[in-house]
C-alpha cells in the first residue's frame, strides 16, 4: 500500500520509499530477524506497546472472538501459551534498543507471566469484564 500511494510517490524518492517499505515490513515482532535499517528499528520499537493489562485483555478478546468453543480453562491455557510464545524469555518478541523503556515493561510482563497466581487473578478479572460487560 505504501509504495503504491500517490501522495507518498509525489513526496518521496524511490530510494526513500524503499527505505520506508523495509521499515514497515520489518517492524513485526513475529518477523524474527533484525530490521534492515535504523528506521525499521525505530518503527519496531515504537510499535511495541507492552502493557500487561492491555496485552492480556487483547489476548482474551481474540480468544473469545476466534475460539468461542473454549471454556474458561481453555481460554486461560491459550492465553498463557500465546504470552509465553511471544513475550517469554525465549519468545519471538525482541527488544533491540537496549535502553528502551520497553526493556523494563517486558521484564514486568515476564514477572506477571511467571507468577501463576498473579496472572490468573488478572485473567479472571479481565475475562469477567469482557464477558459480563
Concise synopsis of the structure shown:
The protein is mainly α and 133 residues long.
Main sheet attributes: strand count, strand direction, barrel closure: none
Number of strands: 0
Radius of gyration: 18 Å
Shape: elongated
Average pLDDT for all residues: 92
Spans of at least 5 consecutive residues whose pLDDT stays below 50 are none
Account of the protein in words:
This protein is an all-alpha fold and 133 residues long. The chain has seven helices and no strands. The longest helix is centred in the C-terminal third of the chain and has 17 residues. The radius of gyration is 18 Å and the shape is elongated.
Key words describing this protein structure:
68% helix; mainly alpha; 0% strand; 7 helices; 133 residues
Outline the fold blueprint.
Elements: H1 6-11, H2 14-26, H3 38-46, H4 52-66, H5 72-87, H6 101-114, H7 116-132
Helix pairs in contact: 2-3, 4-5, 4-7, 5-6
Amino acid at each position: 500500500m505504501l509504495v503504491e500511494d500517490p501522495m507518498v510517490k509525489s513526496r518521496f524518492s524511490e530510494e526513500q520509499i524503499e527505505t520506508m517499505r523495509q521499515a514497515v515490513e520489518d517492524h513485526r515482532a513475529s518477523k524474527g530477524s533484525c530490521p534492515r535499517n535504523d528506521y525499521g528499528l525505530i518503527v519496531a520499537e515504537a510499535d511495541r506497546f507492552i502493557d500487561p493489562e492491555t496485552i492480556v485483555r487483547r489476548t482474551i478478546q481474540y480468544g473469545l472472538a476466534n475460539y468461542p468453543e473454549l471454556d474458561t480453562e481453555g481460554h486461560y491455557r491459550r492465553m498463557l501459551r500465546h504470552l509465553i510464545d511471544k513475550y517469554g524469555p525465549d519468545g519471538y518478541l525482541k527488544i533491540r534498543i537496549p535502553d528502551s523503556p520497553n526493556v523494563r515493561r517486558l521484564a514486568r510482563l515476564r514477572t506477571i507471566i511467571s507468577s501463576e497466581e498473579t496472572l490468573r487473578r488478572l485473567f479472571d478479572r479481565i475475562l469477567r469484564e469482557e464477558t459480563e460487560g
